[in-house]
Amino acid sequence: MSVPTKKPAWTTTALRWTAFTVAVLATVTLVVAGTARSTVANAAYYRTVLDEEDTYDRLYDQVLVDPEASGVTRNLLGRLPVPQAIVTSNLKTVLPPSTTRAMANQVIGQAVTYLRGDTDQLKLTVDLRPVLTNLGDLGHIYFADTVAGLQQKPAPDYRAFQRELDDAVTRIADGQRPDGLPTLDLSDRQAEAATDALLKAVPAGQRGALRPRVEAALGSGDLATALAEVGPVAFAKDKKTAASQLRDTADGSTWNLTADLDRGGADGRDGLAPVREARAFTKLGLGWVQTIAAVLGGAALATLWFAGPPAPGRRLKRVGLALATGGALALALVLAARWFSGGTAMAAPRGWPDSADRLLGDLQQTAMTRLFDTALSTAAFPLVAGALLAAGGWTWQRQAARMKQTNEANEAKAPKTEPTLPPRYRWAAIGVTAAALAGAVLVPNAFGGESEHRCNGRADLCDVPYDQVAQVASHNSMSTSEDKFIGPLQDPSITGQLNDGVRALLIDTHRWETPKEVTARLAESDFTPGMRQQIRSVINTLDPPRKGTWLCHAVCRGGAIPLVPELGKVREWMDNNPAEVVTLVIQDGISGEETARALHAAGLDELAYTPDADPDAPWPTLGEMTEDGKRLVVFAERADGPARYYRNYYRYGMETPFAFSKPQDMTCAPNRGGTGKRLFLMNHFVTNGGGSRLDAGEINAKERVLQRARQCEKQRGRPVNLVAVDYATIGDVSGAVNELNDERVRKLDR
């Protein structure tokens, strides 16, 4: 009969220590690899850091306007044929924030590809084609700015006009800003002579086509239109030269950042050395590293259990100690790395201005803080789980010891081994162990990913349907003091209103009226007699009819903004604020076809949401609209199409009256749209010969808005969606709307 051999004690001990060591190292590897994979090798990590530091705003507001950064702006933008100050003030035209963000995302993607080992060469490049495309826009803005100043000049005699015009044309052709031009009513002969002078800046072959338009403009005293016609053509050659020079500077249409950063390191050191050093670790394939470490760690912990002593409490304690030791070691390594790093990975390249140095420092501080917080949280997971298992094993040992003493006291046969671990405790121990390993893999993703998704500035609004959300709406949004409207109803520009929290714009589209059409419009308008007289005065002096489509308040001669450029600014704002849902309610003085063309020219039709054909159908949530990229809702007061997204508001919504002459006249009675609609517009302004700032100060108070909104909701049976006000920056309409949304979020949560 053979007797089974027993493994030597030293063999079992060596196996246990090997398994313990492998479990510890696997836990450390899981923590480090998981942290790296969710941070330095994850594009979302960099985008979040950039957003947290308001990088794009600081780039425009601090860095690019820093006098010490003139070298950068001169190299990239200073070759334009306009003064340096004009370039600086129009940076957002040549290099829009949306383009900057796209460029940054492009570089981030290239860096992450290198860090993951998908490419062997670190090559950071920026596609400058969007910038080159925008070069022409600066010329238009430059001329528009020039003309705006010209119209304020007193009228001199014709000889002075001719002399200054000749000088201005020369300066314009040289890419310089003219000191100023007078305006004057010109005879046919004088207009012809002025046309000859102005066309000197235009190539001879193109003068014939321009002459009729320039003569017509000067014949009506409209120097603005004359310059606008000549300017782009006069600039064409210089613009092409500027673009060519920029391409040469940028090595074609691509700017190679790698070479510049390599040469720009502090103390002559390779500026991208930290990135290359990090790649030595990240290129290993962090996903596979995590998987292998998890498998080895699980195997090692299983070995510790099955090769351990017969007492289940001691087995459990060893498994827990291995996990806790791995977590503690990882924690110590992270704290040491934080100490030695000093919170930065690289110094700013030589020659960078202080503003850029500060921005880089803040970005690195935020990035390092986020990285180490992720690592510490990840390391804490196995440490805490292991400590719980070890404590459970110790408690089980103590309980087994007391049971043994009880048995001996009762003179019962003492058990040769401790009691077996009950199944429920055994499965609990397995669950905690698995959670510790899985947590080391999954926890970094929770910390290292994108920042919390927000809709219209709030995370909790993402789950609220569009027809349940309250929004601040600006009445006659285009009629602003900033844009010099007569009798303005808002102060900031439309973009400024969006920045201040307005999310619904009530705008009026028009064609420029002829003098004969003004009388009828003025009679129907809400202008005071004094304002009407001002407008008539303008008509008789400097404001002849203009072509195209405009945003006007009743009469374009009382103030007008070109429609397409203004819609383009809305598109730019929405590009810079990708989590915002915006509504347009258009008092349409032009056709639906013209409106659709304008929205297309501005790029807004790409963002337009198409409402369901059934007005009673549910609306999507704000989160669904932002995720789909369809987050512009466009309504008309009269039209209903032809674009599918351009729907008549009163098919889908209802409103209150709006012709209140004093605050106490306000009611919630049905008006256009009748009753029972899903959307509800509350007109909350006083119109008594125009807007009233004093009344706005009273009715725009938070409690006044809340009181009326709740009253109207009770009477009409639907939540107020659009709170339309004059002077949206007066009072606290935003505070009232936030409180209304608080109530609706709580209602949905119940």
Work out the helix count.
28
The CATH class assignment of the largest domain is Alpha Beta
CATH superfamily of the largest domain: Phosphatidylinositol (PI) phosphodiesterase
What percent of the residues sit in helical stretches (DSSP H or I)? 55-70%
Mind telling me the C-alpha Rg? 35 Å
Structural shape: globular
- Find the CATH topology of the largest domain: TIM Barrel
% residues in beta strands: 5-15%
Quick one: how many beta strands?
Answer: 12
First and last CA, distance = 75 Å
So, CATH architecture of the largest domain? Alpha-Beta Barrel
Average of pLDDT: 74
Q: How many structural domains can be distinguished in the coordinates?
A: 3
Structural category is: alpha/beta
Low-confidence stretches: 76-87, 135-162, 172-183, 238-252, 264-268, 414-418
* Main sheet overview: 10 strands, mixed
Protein model, in words:
The chain has 750 residues and is α/β, with parallel strands linked by helices. 57% of the residues lie in helices and 7% in strands. It is built from 28 helices and twelve strands. It has helices spanning 9-38, 43-52, 55-63, 70-76, 84-89, 91-94, 97-115, 129-150, 158-173, 188-198, 204-219, 223-249, 257-263, 273-282, 286-306, 312-341, 354-409, 423-448, 494-499, 515-524, 529-539, 563-576, 592-601, 622-628, 649-652, 693-699, 702-716, 733-749, and strands at residues 125-127, 254-256, 471-474, 504-511, 549-552, 560-562, 582-588, 632-636, 646-648, 653-655, 679-683, 722-725. α3 (55-63) runs antiparallel to α17 and α9 runs parallel beside α10 (188-198). The longest helix is centred in the middle third of the chain and has 56 residues, at 354-409. The protein is globular and about 115 Å long. 38% of the residues are buried. One of its GO terms (biological process) is lipid metabolic process. GO terms for molecular function: phosphoric diester hydrolase activity.
